[in-house]
Write a structure and sequence with these properties.
heterodimer; A: 494 residues; alpha+beta; six-stranded mixed beta sheet; two-stranded antiparallel sheet; 10 helices; 66% helix; rod-shaped; B: 305 residues; alpha/beta; D-Maltodextrin-Binding Protein, domain 2; 2 domains; five-stranded mixed beta sheet; globular
């Protein structure tokens, strides 16, 4: 569309420039024609004037030695005035033929002036004087005839030129009228084309938006080109995305309903399950039961215990408890959790060598602990929930390093005054295609995992208005980064 | 020769004394008020219109450089120049040698400067000439022929032939010749002889040479029979009562114009190398001429018959 608009603008500019130039050209031509006509008329007047001047000099000549004789100075002035007119003729542009005629006139004028000078200065007998005067008069008459010929010729030419110029001006006038009529018409047509080109796609898009608004998420825009085509493509992507989001939301709502039902069911199942477990425990202690039956009973009890743990986790996730806020030091909490983790490592890890601070082992290999605690302020948080989060992350790290490795714990005061806690391992890391799903409920890579540990951790951190994210380390392993706001007494940000 | 020199010196002395001479005619009209243009007379040395064209740039230059406006007034006759000082208020003129002598004697004009021609001469001489094919070679051959003078107030165009006739014992040329007339300009005299309108002519060499340059037939078909001694070329002279500062400015500008680029261009167009200072002593030869033919300048009737 931008290209079309540009082309349109260029066409408009070119059309208007061309029209403007034509108007200027025609006005200039007409003006030049008129100028030329005026000049020709001026020349005509000049020639008539020249003729009159010659006749006046001739009259001066014939009056010599009569009572009406003009003074010498007057005659000289008349002759010079005549000479100046023919000189002035040379200042205008003439055709070669015209210049030739002018040169002939000038030559004859000079001859006339010579004869006149002679008449004015000679003192001789009457016969000689008469002869000189006659000679001058004859030259003057020849000059008059010559000028009259030129005037007759130029008058006819002038009439032709005037007619031609008037015809040209008339034609130019009609062209200009045509241009005046055509200009707005062309503008209207071009304007219509461009306005239609702009409004049609806009209308199509508006119509599509209305359909989308009306719930028709399957509607797609088609048939648009250029920038509007791109806009239509974006619109279609947006409509697709909207449809997908709608489905997700519907699914989430369904899941939430199912979750609520499951939580209620779990709650209802928990008490009978506890009764069954107690009953099984009592039965397993009966002396008359043979050992093989007792082993079966014990297995049932173990499974009930596992189901209880699962349901507890599920209920924690589905109905998280409100945080019981206390002012405490996160570094201290991490140390406490680490101590607990180290103490119960063997049980949690499922046996093997004991792990100790600085040189601990898990899964038969050593686990090294690297702590880097910086000074951070006290914050208001639920210590039990945070301990649950930290412990979960420690356990995940342990499971990620079955052959041993390094557990890194680092705290600092991050940007924006947030407490930054990084817990890293040197395990194999998380597959890139799965890394976005690790916080999803029931997502797990462990054979016996519930898939709720990290989901609950994120839920608890978010309850504290913090964030948690995970990334793979460049050298191997993963790092979980928690950002917690520093809060003072009363729950306000410190 | 000795007698001639004595006469020449005596004439020069006379000329120097002339301004105070009691024979001088009534003075010219009163001095012009300051700011008025000076009216400068111009003799019809050649076709009067060509003469105006030749002098106009010079006048414009003088006006521009001195701040004294100069207006040309062409005269129909040489002798008119004296009348114009009396009646038309001429303030100065470019005088021929004889007209200066006349005007100096009659109205007390004082010479300032004269031009030096392109051939580095500041004088001219008179010529008496005929057509080569006319068979006129001596004064005797002139009997019964037509003679074209320039004007009674010219050295070359009248004094020279008068002395020529005087030297050849012809006391009344009108009786001796078939016809004698005054063509008015040197140029017309030359063309009259060339075109056989007259048999003999008298004119100045500078005009003769100028015409011969543009029309080589003049030099080829005319032959010179007599030459006069050199006399000063036409010079600018002003009335005696013109303000000294104006006179000084005009003279200085004329004398220095060859050193000014604009002045040089004007001189080139005028046909001169420069202007040189001219005094009354330069006109001694004219006075001698007049004395030889017993012509009294103060009472001389310069009007053509």
């Amino acid at each position: 569309m931008k290209r079309k608009i540009l082309i349109g603008l260029v066409i408009y500019t070119v059309v208007f420039l061309a029209a403007g130039m034509y108007v200027i050209h025609t006005i200039r031509t007409a003006t030049l024609n008129l100028d030329r006509l005026i000049t020709l008329h001026q020349v005509e007047i000049l020639r008539e004037h020249y003729l009159l001047e010659i006749k006046r000099v001739q009259s001066d000549l014939t009056l010599i030695d009569t009572p009406y004789e003009r003074s010498f100075d007057t005659v000289v002035t008349h002759i010079m005035s005549m000479g100046k007119i023919i000189d002035a003729c040379f200042r205008c542009h003439h055709s070669p033929r015209g210049t030739e005629r002018l040169i002939a006139l000038k030559r004859q004028t000079e001859k006339y002036k010579d004869a006149l000078s002679r008449v004015l200065t000679i003192r001789a007998n009457a016969a000689r004087l008469a002869e000189e005067e006659d000679a001058a008069f004859r030259i003057g008459e020849e000059l008059i005839a010559q000028v009259q010929t030129v005037i007759a010729f130029t008058t006819s030419r002038l009439a032709e030129n005037t007619q031609k110029a008037m015809k040209d001006i008339g034609r130019t006038k009609y062209y200009l009228y045509g241009l005046l009529a055509l200009g707005p018409l062309v503008s209207a047509v071009l304007g219509f084309v461009f306005i239609t080109g702009l409004t049609r796609p806009v209308n199509v898009l508006l119509e599509s938006i209305r359909k989308l608004e009306g719930g028709d998420l399957d509607h797609r825009v088609a048939g648009l080109k250029d920038e509007f085509g791109e806009l239509a493509a974006s619109f279609n992507v947006m409509a697709g995305s909207l449809k997908e989001q709608m489905h997700k939301m519907q699914r989430a709502e369904e899941l939430a309903v199912v979750g609520e039902l499951a939580a209620g069911l779990a709650h209802e199942v928990k008490n009978p399950m506890a009764g069954i477990k107690v009953a099984m425990s009592v039965l397993s202690e009966e002396p008359y039961f043979p050992p093989e039956d007792k082993a079966v009973l014990q297995k049932v009890i173990d499974e009930i215990t596992r189901l209880e743990g699962l349901m507890k986790s599920f209920l924690n996730f589905a109905r998280p408890q409100r945080p019981q806020l206390e002012l405490f030091n996160v570094n201290q909490m991490l140390n406490t959790t680490l101590t607990f983790y180290l103490k119960h490592h063997a049980i949690i890890a499922g046996g093997g060598d004991k792990a100790g601070e600085g040189d601990k082992a898990g899964g038969g290999d050593k686990i090294r602990i690297r702590k880097d605690f910086q000074d951070i302020p006290l914050t208001l948080a639920d210590p039990t929930q945070l301990q649950q989060v930290f412990l979960n992350l420690f356990l995940n790290a342990l499971h990620a390093m079955p052959a041993g490795g390094e557990l890194g714990i680092r705290t600092s005061l991050g940007d924006g005054g947030m407490i930054r806690i990084e817990i890293s391992d040197t395990g194999s890391g998380i597959r890139e295609d799965l890394i976005d799903n690790v916080f999803q409920p029931f997502f797990t890579t462990k054979p016996k995992g519930t898939g709720l540990g990290l989901a609950i951790s994120r839920q608890l951190i978010e309850q504290h208005e913090g964030t948690i994210r995970v990334a793979n380390r460049p050298g191997g392993g993963a790092v979980f980064t928690i950002l917690l706001p520093v809060k003072g007494e009363g729950g306000t940000a410190a | 020769m000795f007698r001639r020199t004595i006469a020449l010196v005596a004439c020069a002395l006379c000329l120097l004394l002339l301004p105070g001479c009691s024979q001088k005619e009534p003075p010219a009209p009163a001095k012009k008020p300051p700011g008025m243009k000076l009216q400068i007379g111009l003799l019809p040395e050649q076709n009067i219109f060509k003469q105006i064209e030749r002098y106009e740039p010079l006048m414009a230059y003088l006006g521009k450089k001195t701040g004294v406006g100069c207006e040309l007034k062409i005269l129909s006759r040489y002798g008119n120049i004296v009348d114009n000082f009396r009646s038309s208020g001429l303030d100065g003129a470019f005088f021929g040698s004889f007209t200066y002598a006349l005007a100096h004697a009659k109205v007390g004009v004082e010479v300032l400067a004269r031009p030096v021609a392109l051939d580095n001469t500041s004088t001219y001489h008179g010529l008496i000439f005929v057509r080569k094919d006319s068979r006129i070679r001596t004064a005797r051959d002139m009997k019964g022929k037509r003679f074209a003078f320039v004007d009674k107030a010219t050295t070359a165009g009248y004094l020279l032939p008068l002395e020529y006739f005087h030297d050849h014992g012809i006391s009344n040329y009108r009786e001796y010749l078939k016809e004698a007339y005054f063509a008015g300009t040197h140029e017309d005299v030359i063309y009259d002889v060339f075109n056989r309108k007259a048999d003999i002519g008298a004119a100045k060499n500078t005009v003769f040479q100028r015409l011969a340059k543009t029309d080589p037939r003049i030099g080829k078909e005319l032959v010179v029979l007599e030459k006069s001694p050199e006399v000063p070329e036409n010079a600018l002279a002003l009335r005696g009562d013109i303000d000294e500062s104006v006179r000084g400015r005009l003279k200085e500008t004329l004398l220095k114009m060859d050193m000014d680029p604009d002045g040089k261009k004007v001189l080139e167009r005028f046909g001169a190398l420069k202007f040189i200072e001219t005094t009354n002593q330069d006109y001694g030869v004219v006075l001698k001429y007049a004395a030889d033919i017993h012509l009294d300048l103060a009472s001389y009737d310069y009007k053509n018959d």
